[in-house]
């Protein structure tokens, strides 16, 4: 039920080679799980594992960009760096004896600068990372769908924060955990200082009148307050839009069914967000059947 233009487009998508080992190191340093990254990218945890173990020579550039967004880094930081080949045509001329002390001094200075750079990067890696949002790729008008925002905090970097989320026009909050301080077009949470990761979860519903085929946009920011320093405001990263149409939110590829690769991520989301209005029974019934269809009058109908 994804648009037919997507199915009929046979042009190959651009691919890039990622450094899976580097991606895994960044994910583990930020204390992100493979399940969380898989949900943000829209693939399975097995796929994330294969990427991190360099099982594929290249992946779609779009997926690589989503992986970088999930890890809160630029795409260039997870791309594989190809070693440059020496220029065989250029003769190797040894340095003259007079220049050797200068070269040795430059080598020492370079080593010191590299050491300072490594120290700076290690200091930066311990700093709190930005908040990252996960939202489903698809949802239907009038139906509840989940959103999660994860904020990584460490015992070495205690801080509290204010989180704000601006909702799509006409959207209605169903429930949230922790409870929000505001339930209008902008949601707000105040989380006190601490050194443990925080997950803010909420369920949302766009109105029945929302135009199918359009995207509903989410936009948020986190205001971080650490003792002894001024407040820092950052945009929430990760997923920022949901395609609205005749889809179930657990149908991550929009093909009109919930398959084995999609059922487990949906189960974990429902378990983490119990009591927030998600209908696990319908998800399980669609998975057990041959698919589903949706219309505004009857909602989801399971195909037997």
TrEMBL record:
Residue ranges constituting the HTH cro/C1-type domain according to the UniProt record: 24-78
Q: Could you tell me the keywords of this UniProt record?
A: DNA-binding, Membrane, Transmembrane, Transmembrane helix
- Transmembrane residue ranges: 102-122
* SUPFAM superfamilies (alphabetical): lambda repressor-like DNA-binding domains (SSF47413)
One matching Pfam family: HTH_3
* InterPro entries per record: Cro/C1-type_HTH, EF_Hand_1_Ca_BS, Lambda_DNA-bd_dom_sf
Q: Which domain of life is it from?
A: Bacteria
In Swiss-Prot or TrEMBL terms, this protein is called Helix-turn-helix transcriptional regulator
